[in-house]
Amino acid sequence: xxxxxxxxxxxxxxxxxxxxxxxxxxxxxxxxxxxxxxxxxxxxxxxxxxxxxxxxxxxxxxxxxxxxxxxxxxxxxxxxxxxxxxxxxxxxxxxxxxxxxxxxxxxxxxxxxxxxxxxxxxxxxxxxxxxxxxxxxxxxxxxxxxxxxxxxxxxxxxxxxxxxxxxxxxxxxxxxxxxxxxxxxxxxxxxxxxxxxxxxxxxxxxxxxxxxxxxxxxxxxxxxxxxxxxxxxxxxxxxxxxxxxxxxx
Length: 249
What we know:
Blueprint: E1 5-9, E2 12-13, E3 21-22, H1 26-34, E4 38-42, H2 48-57, E5 60-63, H3 86-101, E6 106-109, H4 111-119, E7 124-125, H5 128-131, E8 149-153, E9 167-170, E10 177-178, E11 185-190, E12 196-201, E13 209-212, H6 226-238
Parallel strand pairs: 1-4, 1-5, 5-6, 6-13
Antiparallel strand pairs: 2-3, 7-10, 8-9, 8-11, 11-12, 12-13
Helix pairs in contact: 2-3
């Protein structure tokens, strides 16, 4: 059986030699291997036609972490947002729209789940510390591989084979988070302070579409098996059929 292609989004950053570079943490590539797929990296350096053609060859879309979503995308002026990339926002929103139209499985991580929420009509806390207060510190970037805070789950559907225990501990490396949840999304996991940590998009005309706020690719082999199972289920969905469409009957 051939391995499905998994499209991974990646940002473009400046380099010390004055040339742009495509940046992607190695953990995402490992995650695609755990999912049983082959990665194809898409970035704002690709023209839209090329990205569309590559996505059409893929069986799943992985939206990765990185810059803040431009607050203009959810109708707000800047108020705590840090580095933004309008080019990346435009690319990923277009890819997400196309993936949903094709009923393609989508896994959205950190920035990815925030972008998914914005794409479907939700808003974000531009900075958790200044706009919400922090009962717990979510922005623990230097401890990205460690256990930072617990996650509690409730009534998962699409993630029922992933969240096999009601509570587990994960890393945390974000200063933004979901504020107003899009009507189309169902929350299924929360941090101890009530911040939404995982969502599902249960639309009848969409493929398997889920998002998590932590970074499962940074600690794939964590103790409860949640992160590894997340990528395995994502890969299983990508192999279900053309474009990841669920089997009928």
